[in-house]
Amino acid sequence: MIQTREWSRDSERKIQYSDWRSYASHTVQMLNDLKPISIAKVDKYGGDVTESLVATGFFRTEKSGGRWMVIDPEGHPFVVAAINGLRQGKSPNNEKAFNQKYPATNDWIAASKKQFDELGFNCAGSWSDVEAIILYNKTAAKPLPYTTQLSLLAGYSQSAIKLSPQRKNASVLSFILDTAFVTYCDNKCRELFAGKSDPNLLGHFSDNEIAFLQTEFKKIIETGDKTDRGYLAAMQWMQRKNVTIATITKEQKEEFIGYMAGIYYKTVSEAIKKYDPNHLYIGSRLHSSAKNNKYMFSACEPYIDIISINYYGYWQPRQKDMDDWSSWSSKPFFITEFYTKGQDSGMGNISGAGWLVKTQKDRGIHYQNFCLQLLKAKNCVGWHWFRYQDNDPADTTSDPSNSDSNKGLVNTTYNLYSDLADQMKMLNQNKYSLVKYFNSLK
User: Fold this and answer.
1) What is the DSSP string of 182-241?
2) What share of the chain is helix, strand, coil (3-state, %, to 5)?
3) Domain-embedded: residue 294
4) Does residue 243 belong to any structural domain of this protein?
5) pTM (two decimals)
6) CATH number, domain at 283?
7) Which of 76, 81, 83, 442 is the most exposed place for a label (fewest CB within 10 A)?
8) What is the pLDDT confidence band of residue 224, given thresholds at 50, 70 and 90?
9) Which comes out higher in pLDDT, residue 17 or 333?
10) Is residue 250 domain-resident?
11) What distance in Å separates the CA atoms of residue 324 and residue 126, rounded to the nearest whole number?
């Protein structure tokens, strides 16, 4: 049992915590039939060398024996165990600590790669320093797999608002319908051509946490601009469905959001695959109610290789959610954000969405419990911990959700949280044994 405080946000979006409460938490050592190993046998990418499938020279997905897997460039099963935001902190405190600890950026990447290997992490997630990683990989015997964050709709909507400031209050979904969005995606993805032959690239995220929420329907309908593309699309869609603003149901709003999402995924995937047909398209990191909207999954089904989901609000992945995702889509998923914050860090922990626990060891036990549930799911291919480094309150460039919280694998001065890391290592080093263990259960 772990003592934790559940989070919520007040009317001003500030974090509020409940009273301490105990939650059951399972660990690797509680599985009596599993013999924990100290060092997993993996290839240079971190894949399971005990099993070989078709090697294509790139990461790909395959369903075998009823379980979805990522297959690494050498043809070995690869459970994605990633860390988000492998990048240098921007505050003066971060920079001072970095300069004292590392002679150069490449030394930091090399040290981080060694640290990842020791802990069983095998990938740099979204918002990592891609340029530094690519440079390191050019001469590394053991490369660091990585992902990209293209921010296609986010980038386009910002540029469109600069040209047309009157659209600043429009729903972001309206921008999906702009013909200029197609051109923007094509131009942006043209840059992917240079890296299309890189075997170390896992895949591309197109955006993060787009407002694919049924509540966005109200924003679209209540716009003051009756020429807004989102408004016109909603009115035309309701006409086809023979419903009105007064009679439309919550599910029908979700269906409309799925309709808009389908246009988005078609647009971005065609641009990505046009210039980089070799790598995985790993989605837009669904969040909030979008991850529980079946129409979202049917919308992305034809276009996405792995469905990415940011998962907050529950102590562990709910079985119902994972069963729903399996029934709504034939594609695999991975969790691309989750974390807990430790009270013993001395930080205010006033921002972010993670649960609050008492110690770093408790953070690690939560990690084990969370990931064990994912490994049981045969449509799950991995996870991404949020994130590499703690928030620094002195970082004036951070957004409000990343202002003062213990989210990191390392603290603001690049020192590892060893009690957290020990628990993570136990799970990560056994991830392939755990896959086989759960496969053997009836």
Assistant:
1) HHHHHHHHGGGGGGTT-TTEEEEE--S-----TTHHHHHHT-S-TT-HHHHHHHHHHHHH
2) 40, 15, 40
3) yes
4) no
5) 0.97
6) 3.20.20.80
7) 442
8) confident
9) 333
10) no
11) 25
